[in-house]
C-alpha cells in the first residue's frame, strides 16, 4: 500500500512560481499553482487554481490540504507597500490554520545600501527606502511567527532574476529582445560594477529544497546565485552568443525604458542605489548545507536567449 505524497501549494504563477511548480513536480510532489485567474498553459502534474490570496477566504481556499505553502506572490510595483502586508497577513493566518509550513520567496531589499559589501545571511538590515523598510518589516513578522510557534517559516532571498520567462527584470524584457534584434540595449547605472543575478531555475531549486527540509526553518537563506559579474561583462557574453554587436544605452538615472513605464520608474527611483553600488550576493550557506550549486551564468544566458528567441518568433 502506498501513501499519497503531501500537497505543495505554490502561491503566485509568475516566473518564480511557475518554475518552482515544475521543479516540485520533477521531485515527485503533487502541486497546486495558485493565482487570481487559475488560467495559463497546462503544466504536467500541476493543478491550476484560482484564488485571491490577499483575502482571508481566498488564502484559506488556496492552501487547503497543503503540507507546504510557497509564497511567491507579487503585485504591481506601485502597489507593493500597500498590498504586500495584506497578503502576508492572509497567507500567514491561512497556513497556520492549515498546519502547513511556509516558504517565502524574498528580496534583498531589507539590506538597503551596502556600499559594496558582500551580502550574507548575517548582513545587517539597514533599509531606508519605503519598499526596503516594508520588506524588512514583513520579514521580521515572518520570523516572529516562527519563533512564537504559530507555524514553521523559512525565507529564501534572491537577487534580480534572469532566465526563461523572466520579463520584468533589469536583465529581462528590455535587454534580450533588443540584443537579438539589433536595437539599443539599456543598462542601468554604472555598468562596471558587479551585480548578482539569480537564475530562475536556481530560485526554484532553492525554494523546493527549503520546502523539503524542515531543519531549514526559522531563518533567512540566500538562494543559489552565480558569482557576480559586471553589467559590461554580462552584455559582452550576450554579444558573443547573439553574434551581433550590442548598442548599449546607459540609463544613468531613473527614467522610463523598455517595459518599465513612468509609473514603475517613479516607484523604482528610491531603489536605484542597486545600480550605483556593487550588488554582490553570497549563497554559499545553502549550497554547503544542502549540496546545491548555482548554474553558471554562461549556461543561464544560453537558456535565456533560446527562450527569448522562441518568444519573439511566436509574436511575429
From TrEMBL:
Pfam families referenced in this protein's UniProt entry, alphabetically: Epimerase
Residue span, NAD-dependent epimerase/dehydratase domain: 12-217
InterPro entries per UniProt: Epimerase_deHydtase (IPR001509), NAD(P)-bd_dom_sf (IPR036291), NAD(P)-dependent_oxidoreduct (IPR051783)
PANTHER family on file: NAD(P)-BINDING DOMAIN-CONTAINING PROTEIN-RELATED, PROTEIN YEEZ
Name the record gives this protein: NAD-dependent epimerase/dehydratase domain-containing protein
Amino acid at each position: 500500500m502506498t501513501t499519497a505524497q503531501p500537497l505543495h501549494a505554490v502561491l503566485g504563477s509568475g516566473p518564480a512560481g511557475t518554475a518552482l511548480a515544475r521543479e516540485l513536480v520533477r521531485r515527485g510532489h503533487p502541486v497546486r499553482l495558485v493565482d487570481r485567474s487559475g488560467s495559463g498553459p497546462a503544466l504536467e502534474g500541476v493543478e491550476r487554481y484560482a484564488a485571491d490570496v490577499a483575502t482571508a477566504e481566498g488564502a484559506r481556499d488556496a492552501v487547503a490540504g497543503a503540507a507546504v505553502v510557497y509564497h511567491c506572490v507579487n503585485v504591481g510595483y506601485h502597489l507593493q507597500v500597500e498590498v504586500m502586508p495584506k497578503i502576508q497577513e492572509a497567507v500567514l493566518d491561512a497556513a497556520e490554520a492549515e498546519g502547513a509550513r511556509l516558504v517565502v520567496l524574498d528580496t534583498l531589499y531589507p539590506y538597503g545600501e551596502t556600499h559594496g559589501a558582500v551580502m550574507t545571511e548575517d548582513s545587517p538590515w539597514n533599509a531606508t527606502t519605503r519598499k526596503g523598510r516594508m520588506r524588512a518589516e514583513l520579514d521580521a513578522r515572518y520570523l516572529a511567527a516562527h519563533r512564537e510557534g504559530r507555524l514553521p517559516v523559512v525565507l529564501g532571498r534572491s537577487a534580480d532574476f534572469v532566465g526563461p520567462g523572466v520579463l520584468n527584470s533589469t536583465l529581462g524584457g528590455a535587454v534580450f529582445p533588443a540584443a537579438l534584434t539589433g536595437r539599443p540595449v539599456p543598462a542601468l547605472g554604472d555598468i562596471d560594477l558587479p551585480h548578482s543575478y539569480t537564475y530562475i531555475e536556481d530560485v526554484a531549486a532553492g525554494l523546493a529544497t527549503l520546502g523539503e527540509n524542515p531543519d531549514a526553518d526559522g531563518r533567512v537563506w540566500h538562494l543559489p546565485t552565480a558569482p557576480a559579474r559586471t553589467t559590461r561583462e554580462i552584455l559582452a557574453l550576450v554579444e558573443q552568443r547573439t553574434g551581433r554587436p550590442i548598442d548599449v544605452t546607459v540609463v544613468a538615472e531613473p527614467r522610463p525604458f523598455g517595459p518599465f513605464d513612468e509609473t514603475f520608474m517613479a516607484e523604482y527611483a528610491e531603489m536605484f542605489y542597486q545600480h550605483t553600488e556593487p550588488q554582490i550576493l553570497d549563497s554559499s550557506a545553502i549550497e554547503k548545507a544542502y549540496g546545491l550549486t548555482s548554474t553558471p551564468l554562461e549556461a543561464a544566458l544560453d537558456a535565456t536567449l533560446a527562450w527569448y528567441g522562441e518568444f519573439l518568433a511566436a509574436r511575429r
